[in-house]
Write a structure and sequence with these properties.
Strand content: under 5%
Number of helices: 13
Radius of gyration: 25 Å
Distance between the termini: 73 Å
Shape: elongated
Largest sheet: 2 strands, parallel
Helix content: 55-70%
Number of domains: 2
Number of strands: 2
Length: 261
């Protein structure tokens, strides 16, 4: 295959990947025009073409880039590894070059990025529960271990199981997918650890929203959603999560101090 010498124009996306940066505005028209002018690109290259990542397209108005910089925008392949073949084919993309792959391997690579923050966030929910366990003063060690274990399993439900099974879990909403996964795990945990309908109700109110919150973070990493979808998820999903956790906490306090088991 023919060898090509290329120039790389680097944009400042604040450390955010191209796809997400295009949605957030850091990979966009203004930044491209600014960088072209800052480096005097017209004096560096003999042509007037900019090859941009295909996934950066949502943040770029190609006609404005041409008007303000003089450079024509050409969208390249999704993956950088396909650039040599793209250039060899005369800047033409095959259908395969346009396709984004989001296999289970790709999804699992993101798990640590979501599970670790989820563990930290989950502590804010777990701490009031543990305080109530201590205040109740009955079977303290057992209650602490049970609640901590259920908390950890719920985080893994939203941060590991949901990404693994994402394409097969019913519905399009990530908040719903995480909630549904959390409900399944909470119901299973309740079957083994809950002694009353009250405890099961607390379980179903308290833990699925945590799994849902972690799952919704994957909206920024997935081919299954869009910027408008993320905004909608946050608008309707987050208030429901907060309300559910609050009701679960209230019910738990009531069960502890009103004679519930």
């Amino acid at each position: 295959m023919r060898q090509y010498c290329t120039w790389l124009l680097v944009l400042d996306t604040k450390g955010i990947n191209v796809w997400c940066a295009a949605g957030k505005g850091t990979f966009g028209t203004d930044e491209i025009v600014y960088r072209v002018k800052m480096v005097n690109l017209e004096e560096v290259v003999s042509h007037k073409k900019l090859i941009l990542p295909q996934l950066g397209a949502p943040g770029v108005a190609a006609h404005k880039v041409k008007e303000e910089s003089g450079f024509k925008v050409i969208y390249g392949p999704v993956y950088a590894k396909d650039l040599p073949l793209f250039l060899y084919n005369g800047l033409k993309k095959s259908p395969q070059m346009r396709r984004v792959h989001f296999t289970m391997k790709d999804r699992l690579a993101l798990v640590p990025m979501e599970v670790i923050p989820g563990l930290i966030f989950g502590l804010y929910i777990l701490i009031p529960v543990l305080i109530l366990d201590l205040l109740k003063g009955e079977a303290i060690i057992q209650n602490l271990l049970v609640d901590s274990s259920i908390w950890l399993v719920t985080i893994l439900a939203g941060g590991l199981v949901m990404p693994m099974l994402m394409p097969w879990i019913p519905g399009r909403s990530f908040a719903w997918k995480g909630w549904l996964t959390g409900m399944v795990f909470a119901a299973a945990a309740g079957y083994f650890f809950c002694d009353s309908p009250m405890e099961m109700a607390i379980m179903m109110l308290f833990f699925p929203p945590l799994a849902s919150y972690i799952a919704v973070n994957f909206t920024g990493s997935s081919t299954f959603t869009s910027l408008s979808g993320v905004v909608k998820e946050l608008k309707y999903g987050l208030p429901l999560m907060v309300v559910s956790v609050f009701l679960g906490l209230v019910l738990r306090i009531y069960s502890y101090f009103a004679g519930g088991s």
